[in-house]
C-alpha cells in the first residue's frame, strides 16, 4: 500500500535497501530468485506499508521541572513495536544558550541508543542575534526545520518580533517554520485567575488554554508568515477554528500546513473532566494534560479534525509524544494544574489508532499511509529514502494484519516508559506483525529482535513543500 494506491506485489530487499518491487504476475515465490533469498516473509492477506514516520517526539525533554520519561532507547523501541521506523525529535536551544550546543546535546542523548532512525528539528527557545546567525548553518547539519513557541512565556516563548526575525531566516534558507500556536501571555493570565479561584484540577488546564487563543495565534503566525514569505507548519492543531484559519490561508494560496495528533481525534475535555480514580481522584485527569489541550467533544473539534484529514486541510498526524509518569512527575501539579508537566505518550499506538480511521471509513487505506509516513517524509526532507516502498529506498517496512487485534494498556501492549497509558482500554482492529528497519527485522509477532544503536541519524534535506 502506498499513498497513491495498492497492488499485490513482492518486495525484494538487499542489505539495507529495497532492490525491487515485483509486480503482480512476476511473483518471487516459486522462482529461482526465491531459492536464492535468505529470508522470506509471507505477507499474504496483509498490508505491506512503508514504516511509520513520527515527525513530532520529545524523548528525554527537560520540561515542567522534570524530564520526559522515555529515553531515546525506550521511546524508539516502543515506536518500533508500533510500526514506526523513523522519528524526528526536537533538539532544544534555550535563552542564553548557543544553538550549536543545544543540538550537540541532543546528538549526545540519541547517538548509539535508538532502535530506529532519527532526525532532529531545532527548537529555537531564545531568538537572539546569535541564534539567528546560527540557524542557516543547521541546514548543512541536516536540520531543515525549527520550532518556535507563541506559548510558554519564560520557557521557550518568542514574541512577535522574534517570530518575525526567525521567519525571515526561514524564508531565506528554506527551513520550515514549525509553530506552537497558542497565545501564551493570555493563557497564563487565565490560568493564574483560575488557580486564584481555587480551580486547580487538571481539567482547568483545558479551560485556560481556550480555543480562541489557539485560533488567534494560528492566525497571527499565518499573517507573519504571509508577510515574510516563510513556509509554515503548525504543530499539534486541536481547535476546529485553527483548522479553519489554515484552510482559509491555503485557499488564498499560502504555503501553510497543519499537523494533528491522535489525542485530538479521539479524546475530549469532557472525558478528562469525568476522569476519576481511587488512587488519584479528580487528579486522574492529569494523564491527559497536554498543550494544545484536549478540546470539547460537544463543540465538535474531534469530528472536524477527522474531516480536515480527509479534505487535506490538515496534512499529517504525529504524536507529540511527550511522556510523563503520574508518580513523581504529573503529580508535581497536584493542587495547581499549571505545574503538571504537559504531554501525552502515544508513539507506540499512532499507526494502530490511525488505522481505526480506515476501519471506520473516515480515511482511505492510502490516506493512512500518506498521513503517517509519506507526507512526513516529503514534508521533512526524507522522501525517497523514507516514506515509500520503491527501489533504492531504505528497507523500512511494516507488515500490518488487518485481521489481527491489539489491546492497548498497561500489562498488554505497553512498552513506553510510563506508569499509565493515556489509551488504556482502547481495542484496535488490526495488528503490527513484522517491522523492518533498513532491511533488518526488528519486531516479529510482538517480539523485539533489534538492538540499541540500530537507529542512525537522518541527515534531512529541505522540505518538498516549499513551493
Ligand atoms: O504538551 C505538550 N505538547 N508537550 C510537549 C511540548 C510541546 O509543546 O510540544
Ligand atoms: Zn508545542
Ligand atoms: Zn511537542
From TrEMBL:
EC top class, as a word: hydrolase
Cofactor annotation: Zn(2+)
Gene Ontology molecular function: dihydropyrimidinase activity
SUPFAM superfamilies: Composite domain of metallo-dependent hydrolases, Metallo-dependent hydrolases
Amidohydrolase-related domain span: 47-441
Alphabetized Pfam families for the sequence: Amidohydro_1
Enzyme Commission identifier(s): 3.5.2.2
UniProt entry keywords in alphabetical sequence: Hydrolase, Metal-binding
Stored CDD domains: D-HYD
Alphabetized InterPro entries for the sequence: Amidohydro-rel, Hydantoinase/dihydroPyrase, Metal-dep_hydrolase_composite, Metal_Hydrolase, Metallo-dep_Hydrolases_sf
Family listed: Belongs to the metallo-dependent hydrolases superfamily. Hydantoinase/dihydropyrimidinase family.
Name recorded for this polypeptide: Dihydropyrimidinase
Amino acid at each position: 500500500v502506498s499513498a497513491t494506491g495498492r497492488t499485490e506485489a513482492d518486495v525484494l530487499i538487499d542489505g539495507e535497501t529495497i532492490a525491487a518491487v515485483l509486480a503482480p504476475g512476476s511473483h518471487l515465490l516459486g522462482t529461482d530468485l526465491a531459492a536464492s533469498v535468505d529470508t522470506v516473509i509471507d505477507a499474504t492477506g496483509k498490508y505491506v506499508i512503508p514504516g511509520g514516520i513520527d515527525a513530532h517526539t520529545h524523548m528525554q525533554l527537560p520540561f515542567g521541572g522534570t524530564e520526559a520519561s522515555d529515553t531515546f532507547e525506550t521511546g524508539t523501541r516502543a515506536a518500533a513495536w508500533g510500526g514506526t521506523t523513523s522519528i524526528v525529535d526536537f533538539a532544544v536551544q534555550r535563552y542564553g544558550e548557543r544553538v550549536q550546543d543545544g543540538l550537540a546535546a541532543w546528538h549526545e542523548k540519541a547517538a548509539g541508543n535508538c532502535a530506529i532512525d532519527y532526525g532532529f528539528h531545532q527548537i529555537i527557545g531564545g531568538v537572539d542575534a546569535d541564534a539567528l546567525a546560527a540557524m542557516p548553518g543547521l541546514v548543512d547539519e541536516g536540520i531543515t526545520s525549527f520550532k518556535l513557541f507563541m506559548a510558554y512565556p519564560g520557557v521557550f516563548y518568542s514574541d512577535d518580533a522574534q517570530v518575525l526575525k526567525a521567519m525571515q531566516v526561514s524564508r531565506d534558507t528554506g527551513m520550515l517554520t514549525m509553530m506552537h500556536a497558542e497565545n501564551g501571555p493570555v493563557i497564563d493570565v487565565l490560568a493564574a485567575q483560575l488557580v486564584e479561584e481555587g480551580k486547580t484540577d487538571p481539567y482547568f488546564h483545558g479551560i485556560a488554554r481556550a480555543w480562541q487563543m489557539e485560533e488567534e495565534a494560528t492566525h497571527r503566525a499565518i499573517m507573519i508568515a504571509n508577510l515574510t514569505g516563510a513556509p509554515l507548519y503548525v504543530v499539534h492543531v486541536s481547535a476546529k477554528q485553527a483548522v479553519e484559519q489554515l484552510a482559509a490561508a491555503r485557499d488564498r494560496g499560502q504555503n501553510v500546513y497543519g499537523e494533528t495528533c491522535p489525542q485530538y481525534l479521539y479524546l475530549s475535555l469532557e472525558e478528562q473532566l469525568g476522569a476519576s480514580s481511587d488512587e488519584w481522584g479528580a487528579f486522574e485527569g492529569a494523564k491527559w494534560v497536554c498543550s494544545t489541550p484536549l478540546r470539547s467533544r460537544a463543540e465538535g473539534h474531534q469530528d472536524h479534525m477527522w474531516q480536515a484529514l480527509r479534505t487535506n486541510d490538515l496534512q499529517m498526524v504525529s504524536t507529540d509524544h511527550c511522556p510523563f509518569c503520574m508518580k513523581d512527575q504529573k503529580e508535581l501539579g497536584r493542587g495547581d494544574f499549571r505545574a503538571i508537566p504537559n504531554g501525552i505518550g502515544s508513539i507506540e499506538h499512532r499507526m494502530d489508532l490511525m488505522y481505526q480511521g480506515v476501519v471506520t471509513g473516515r480515511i482511505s487505506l492510502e490516506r493512512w499511509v500518506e498521513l503517517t509516513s509519506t507526507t512526513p517524509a516529503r514534508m521533512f526532507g526524507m522522501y525517497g529514502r523514507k516514506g515509500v516502498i520503491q527501489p533504492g529506498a531504505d528497507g523500512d517496512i511494516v507488515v500490518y494484519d488487518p485481521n489481527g487485534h491489539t489491546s492497548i494498556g498497561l500489562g498488554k501492549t505497553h512498552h513506553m516508559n510510563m506508569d499509565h497509558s493515556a489509551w488504556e482500554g482502547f481495542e484496535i482492529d488490526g495488528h503490527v506483525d513484522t517491522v523492518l528497519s533498513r532491511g533488518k527485522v526488528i519486531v516479529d509477532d510482538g517480539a523485539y529482535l533489534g538492538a540499541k544503536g540500530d537507529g542512525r541519524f537522518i541527515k534531512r534535506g529541505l522540505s518538498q513543500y516549499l513551493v
